[in-house]
Automatic annotation (TrEMBL):
InterPro entries: AB_hydrolase_fold, DUF1023. It comes from Amycolatopsis mongoliensis. This is Alpha/beta hydrolase. The lineage of its organism: Bacteria, Bacillati, Actinomycetota, Actinomycetes, Pseudonocardiales. Keywords: Hydrolase. The keyword Cell membrane does not apply. Coiled coil: none annotated. Residues 317-490 form the DUF1023 domain. Pfam families: Abhydrolase_8. One of its GO terms (molecular function) is hydrolase activity.
Length: 552
């Protein structure tokens, strides 16, 4: 592996000069070679001497062909290397700046050591933020050296192949064609992210690439980039908007194909009824997804006056559909909240409701003094679609790793500095949030549980928030339920002994749970389960206060 000191000394200016020189020499070689290619055969010249001259000419043209193609590839690779090194050195410079700010030193082997006495940071640097930054620094240096190795090895390979004459068309009559063929060679390849990369490692990989390299990947692999936790929000948004268009068109084609097949069946014919109604169910499901995607697109493309920009951080129409939409940029906001909806969440005609709730919470946080806010609708799991399904913990079980990874990705891409993070669950979404905090922990300052059927633990102390001491977690858990909401009443027993047999766990608003509570208004029982985000409601005001870094 190349040393950190070597990479810092790499001189892109020298590579740029070499690139220009090779290009100039290649141009001379191409023009001269094409002229030389026209020398033979000479009209009217035949015999042994002509044959000898022709053979020599053929041999020289073969060498020129390989030289021109090789020089063309070398020039391209050197230009790519100069561009790629800029990205690597930029990543190292940023890592060193962070290290200096947060009291770390980067050794030549890439290890990160503490410079503060006894590891005690000044009071203005939050320990949790500092620990996160240390991981980012270490991952950034590791990836920068990994990318530098890749550049070094790729360039050496191209130079070796050019020296050995591996490039060329085999057509010795035109040197221009040989140079063009060499230019079509990929030259250097972009490094792949580390296998099984963490979001922090993914962020380090992305930041080690040059802007040109990033643009190539954004064009060639939008689906992969859009799904990667650790990629900046604006990049994921661009990638996923491309994916969104492709997926929307695919769903329309599938729907139209089903409709065509239905049109060719006789609904009243008993022998065709089963197939007809099966196709009808599939068509209606696709129509629901298309409606949900229309609602997503409406918020992305047509924000109301004063509404923040929306970012599409994830989209997947498979099964019940998954979507992640951020209102405001989570990479730059001082206060970031992730809202996890519950039963029936997915890409369907209820998508606008969940997005509107995020918009409402952004506005509530602003009224509570938040200088900049991002609230994310995280429908990034396969949610239960019926109340019967919602009695099972399996949906939450499968969502845990995705939610934890997403939250880690937010931390990896957020600009340096403190950020107040809140995770809000509604209904079954509180089960997802609770189980994730129980089993994997969550990098969050606060949790808000709205209309919870249970959060998977018997006591707030069984939940784990990164950086919050275990004996203080209960002070950061806020729960509410409306007096007229039937869902908590149906799913909780308000009895410590009975709650132990509840598969989802006890009501977190009970006194023995050990968390904090806030009030919600009484509304119509038929709608109260979704009324927590009504304008001017006590519950929305309290959620805004918590998101803004205060208390309900």
């Amino acid at each position: 592996m190349v040393a950190l000191s070597d990479v810092k000394r790499w001189n892109t200016g020298q590579l740029d000069e070499i690139f220009r020189t090779v290009q100039q020499r290649l141009q001379i070689l191409t023009h001269s070679g094409d002229d030389f290619g026209k020398v033979m055969p000479v009209e009217g010249w035949a015999g042994p001497s002509a044959d000898t001259a022709g053979s020599a000419h053929h041999s020289l043209m073969s060498r020129i062909d390989k030289m021109a193609a090789g020089a063309s590839v070398v020039a391209k690779a050197i230009g790519q290397a100069a561009d790629a090194i800029t990205g690597v050195q930029h990543a190292i410079t940023n890592a060193e700046a962070l290290a200096g700010k947060y009291g770390y030193r980067i050794a030549q082997d890439g290890t990160v050591t503490d410079t503060f006495p006894a590891g005690q940071a000044p009071p203005d640097i939050h320990p949790e933020d500092r620990a996160r930054i240390r991981t980012q620094i270490a991952d950034s240096i590791t990836q920068a050296l990994r990318t530098a190795d890749d550049i070094d090895a790729d360039l050496a390979s191209v130079l070796k192949r050019a020296q050995e004459g591996d490039f060329g068309t085999g057509d010795e009559t035109t040197v221009t064609a040989a140079a063009a063929d060499g230019a079509r060679d990929p030259g250097l390849t972009l490094p792949e992210p580390p296998p099984n990369a963490t979001p922090s490692q993914t962020a380090a990989w992305w930041n080690s690439l040059s802007p040109a390299g990033q643009a190539i990947l954004l064009h060639d692999r939008p689906g992969a980039l859009g799904a990667m936790d650790g990629i900046p929000a604006d990049v994921r948004d661009k990638a996923n908007r491309t994916v969104f268009t492709q997926q929307y068109d695919d769903l329309k084609h599938q729907r139209d194909d089903l409709q065509h097949r239905m049109d060719n069946l006789n609904q009243s014919d008993p022998t065709e009824q089963t197939e007809y109604f099966d196709l009808e169910r599939q068509r209606d499901s696709l129509n629901g997804k298309l409606t949900g995607m229309d609602q997503i697109n409406d918020r992305l493309a047509n924000p109301l006056p004063g509404q923040p920009h929306a970012y599409l951080l994830g989209i997947n129409p498979q099964k019940s559909g998954q979507a992640i939409i951020a209102i405001g940029n989570p990479d730059t906001a001082a206060n970031v909240a992730t809202y996890v909806p519950g039963t029936t969440a997915g890409i369907n005609d209820g998508m606008a409701t969940d997005i509107n709730r995020s918009d409402a919470m952004v506005q509530a946080a602003q009224r509570s003094g938040s200088p900049s806010t991002s609230v994310i609708t995280w429908a990034g799991y396969d949610a239960p679609q019926t109340l019967v399904d919602a009695a099972s913990t399996s949906y939450a079980d499968h969502a845990e790793s995705s939610l934890r990874r997403f939250q880690d990705g937010l931390g990896a891409t957020h600009q340096p500095g403190e950020v107040n993070t809140t995770i809000i669950g509604h209904s079954y979404g509180t089960t997802v949030v609770g189980q994730t905090a129980r089993d994997l922990g969550l990098p969050a300052d606060n949790m808000v549980m709205v209309a919870s059927p249970g959060v998977g633990v018997q006591h707030a102390g069984d939940l784990h928030l990164d950086g919050v001491p275990a004996d203080q977690v209960g002070q950061h858990i806020y729960s509410t339920k409306a007096p007229t909401d039937p869902i908590p009443a149906l799913t909780n027993f308000d009895n410590p002994a009975a709650d132990k047999i509840d598969p989802l766990g006890p009501d977190p608003t009970t006194a023995w749970f050990g968390g904090q509570t806030f009030q919600s208004n009484s509304t119509n029982p038929l709608s109260s389960h979704g009324d927590y985000w009504l304008p001017r409601s006590d519950s929305l005001r309290s959620m805004g206060n918590v998101i803004a870094g205060g208390r309900p």
